[in-house]
Write a structure and sequence with these properties.
By secondary structure, the protein is α/β, with parallel strands linked by helices. The protein has three domains: about 15-205, Thiamin diphosphate (ThDP)-binding fold, Pyr/PP domains (Rossmann fold), CATH 3.40.50.970; about 220-380, 3-Layer(aba) Sandwich (Rossmann fold); about 400-580, Rossmann fold. A six-stranded parallel beta sheet has the order 4-3-5-6-8-7, sandwiched between helices. Strands 12-11-10-13-14-15 form a six-stranded parallel beta sheet. It has a six-stranded parallel beta sheet with strand order 17-16-18-19-21-20, sandwiched between helices. Helix 1 crosses helix 2 and helix 1 (about 35-45) runs parallel beside helix 6. The protein is globular and about 70 Å long. The relative contact order is 0.11.
Length: about 575
Amino acid sequence: MHLGLEELRPDDSHTDLDQPEDHHYVEDGPRTMRTTGSQALLEVLRGEGVEYVFGIPGATEIRFMDALERASDIHYVLGLHEVVCAGMAEGYARATGRPGFLNLHTASGVAAATPMLYNAFLGGVPLVVTCGQNDTRLLQHDPHLSGDIVAIAKPHTKWATEITHAQDIPLVLQRAFKMALQPPTGPVLVSIPQNVLAQELDFDYKRNTQVFARIRPDRAALDRAVEILEGANNPLIMVESGVSRADALTEVIAFAEIIGARVFQSWMADVNFPVTHPQYLGDLDPTGPRAVQMFADTDVLVGIGCSMFAEGFLIPEASVPQDVKIIHIDDNPWELGKNLPTDCAMQGDIRVTLKELNAALAADLPTEARERASERARRIAEEKSASDAEFYARLEAGQLGLPIRIPRLMTEIDKCVGPGTVVVDECWSASAVLRRTLRLTKPRSFFRSRKGGSIGWGLPGALGVKLGMPDKDVLAIVGDGGAGWSMQSLWTAARYEIPVTYVITNNATYGQVKLVRAAVLGPYPLSEKHVGMELDYPVIDFTMLAQAMGVVAQKVAHPDEFGDALQDAIASGEPRLVEVLVEQPG
């Protein structure tokens, strides 16, 4: 595998410290130097361990780009649209657990990136975003591309600020990295005017503050949770991406097994519970009729790292009965008790909280309660087995037909996914079948857009995931609607030789929108054409688009051809695309 990220540099035989025009040491200490704002920014990035800068430069970034050209240890990854750049940064951050670094150009660049910043903010993805601002001496003249960058960014970031003095660059940038990683994690933006990058300062690098953020839960909360769970007869657990963010998969499995609970998630964006576990029963829309039935039979509802609840549609009556006791575990205090009165709201690091709660249950749970939990787990396993048998029967029945049927497509993908393959999912209307077909059990083996849900993340997100996990095969399955948002990602894949394999499912329609229409207006033949939902004239030829951007691509219309085409693409060690003509959602 080769990542072609070595850009031509003016002189790769010198490091930045060999450039006398940028800075020189002064007498007040060995690490103190007289330098420019742009070079100070670069040194902070080095200190924070930044490998990649994702971005699109413009006039306001020229000085930073000039400094970056002489930095052989930090790679600039160019995208052709801000959605692509921000999507790559988010994918990298989720794959590594470290902040992705994103560099945008003026107010228009921040505005263009907001769909992905929105996703990152709601999904708790740590990003550090810098944006080039016009010279402060021009701002009152309304210069081209100027604007209130901080105001544009504020709704989609934990913190946004603008620097006015070069000496503040180390303080503010290090604070940004600290805040991005400090729970609740998320994106942070710093606007940097051109003249600030040109100013000189005495720069003295000091290691950034390490925040030990794994906060323990309150002892009273643990006691209250144990008390509630001791009397539980039919507990239900809802998990979401907080489990993945806290690296708490092992702990949440142990917790579910101790209390003998059904496990669901309302939005699967990561592996927050093994799909194959006998107590995992899949997706559960908290506003749907199935959820109403499930909650009616539940006496204790436990939310772990999730919103309770972020409904997509207004429902006249609450889906959770008032007599259901609620335990909610999260590191974000905003989520606790936000929408539902909660009997035990446990603020703390999710992994630490579950470890301590599991220990308390192991010590204090009466024998009779353990026996009830064991019997529940046995019944849930039977329920799971019956549900799986029904699903696989439908999967088998859906193998034949043209255009290629989704069950056949996902069966072939499953055959090609090795134990070390990482899957990126943005095939919206086919995603449920994909997630159930693949045996997803390991952390960071599956990535899907989190709570924000703005489309266009799959193509660039996969590139960021691959850069963050270079030793893994990365396979992205993306619908034609999402691909249309960020097709420029393929140019970046070709330019830097990033070996991601893409499968684009082309059914010439916004299938997910039709599924939502059916949920709102009632069932109807999904093959019907409706205003704003069709991509059928002209039908997009993604194979031609990929080839025009330098990516080898193949179009598949027959199911017997797909498996070989996908295996060849994965084995090539280069960016490849397989376009598949598939059925419309049914």
